[in-house]
Structures
1.
Amino acid sequence: MIRDKYKLVLASSSERRLIILKRIGYIPDIIDVPNIKEDIYKNETPKAYVKRIAKEKAESVSQRHKNSFIIAADTVIFSGSKICGKVSHKDDAFKILKKLSGKKHRVYGGICVLSPNKNISLKSIVTQVSFRVINDQEIQDYLDTEEWIGKAGCYAIQGIASKFVKRINGNYDNVVGLSVIDADKMLKGIKV
């Protein structure tokens, strides 16, 4: 990227994504929260979903920031045959964590980088996470911390919920919210 000529815009409200980008040397000039519907289409795969949502976030924000690089991302949990995104009710969060207890699930991350000339780099990443068995009281105690709010799958692997994780197979940063290795490669590789 030609940093003196173009701005970098992070299309996200996620503090985690900002921290991850800064950690690898990318400090966004602007943070702009996309305003899109994140509905899941009937029969949509988690891979297609995260790529579509990341792209829609980037395109939405790009209309307000001409001559900029835009980076956007999305994360969902896939357990059984169901996509689990963010929920706003504690009862729904309880049900999701109960479903994840003692089982494996997959975390799908989608990243989109949009260049000033509207070139698109789009990628999905999958990480498998295994939870230990979590009893109802542990779930309730976790929900009382409110750490789950705004998180895909109702947990933050980098926080208190790390004690539920038995095993991880794949990219840890993807579970947090943005795969650094992929974001870096995409930002360096996209043509203006």
Note: The chain has six helices and seven strands.
2.
Amino acid sequence: MKIDKPTVKPLPASSAGEKATPASTKGKSTLLPSTELTSSTSVSLGTTAAQLNSMESSMVNIPVVDAGKVAEITKAISEGRFKVNSGAVADRLIESVRDLIGGRT
């Protein structure tokens, strides 16, 4: 059985930043640097990035789970005092499914 090599067509350069290279550079890198970076290059992300960084730093020490509330519920379950409101659970489940279905359309 003979396997032929597939015909591969080169993709055209579609980005505005890409430049076509002559055929004599075949096999060499086709990306041309648009500018050279120097030691004076700087990036400014603006005040929003600084605010997000500050918020992230302040939230590092906040626990994700309220350990006191978990202990209270655990104790109520073990003592038989915890009651599940099946109507509320069903309502929230139906609401969640409606949101998921509504989000698809």
Note: The mean pLDDT is 77.
